[in-house]
Amino acid sequence: MSYSVQRLLRIAFLLFLFNAPFGKPNCQIIPAGGVEFGSGVASLKSFVGLWQNASGKPFFEEWRRINDSTLVGRSYEVRGKDTVISEQLTLRIINSKLYYIALANGQNQDKPVYFVLNRQHPGGYGFANPQHDFPQQIDYVFHSPGSLTSEISGNTRGVFQSRRFHMKKLR
After folding, report:
1. What is the C-alpha separation between 103 and 125, in angstroms, rounded?
2. Residue 33 CA to chain centroid, in angstroms?
3. How far apart (Å, rounded) are the C-alpha atoms in residues 112 and 21?
């Protein structure tokens, strides 16, 4: 094997090891449990597209399909001419479990937080991580092809809190 091929393989291996949102290294918490997810990400096609918060402070969530086991997304605001990304998001199937992986800028020691699928029904998905400070639960409910509600909830210092976002699909 030539020196350049060996070097390329070493670089690819290192990139794989440090690609935090897609693997287990460098993650904060990977919750146990969850429900089996037998479908590929094609069944998550409702997520794909650009969504805008229709209630309260305007922000966007954008999702795209990468392959049969991964969707990637980002949550962001537009401030003037600048796009300010607040979270990098991933929906990924790992060992027959579906994980919602959030990497929030400046939070959780800049490590991704994993939420495992804990409930699924025809109109939505719920993801849980009971060890996370807040939220411990993330839910998406699709009302129609162009409308969804996302909700984050959990306990903070013993007090239950919930924030609901009504989103409309732009494309």
Report:
1. 19
2. 18
3. 6
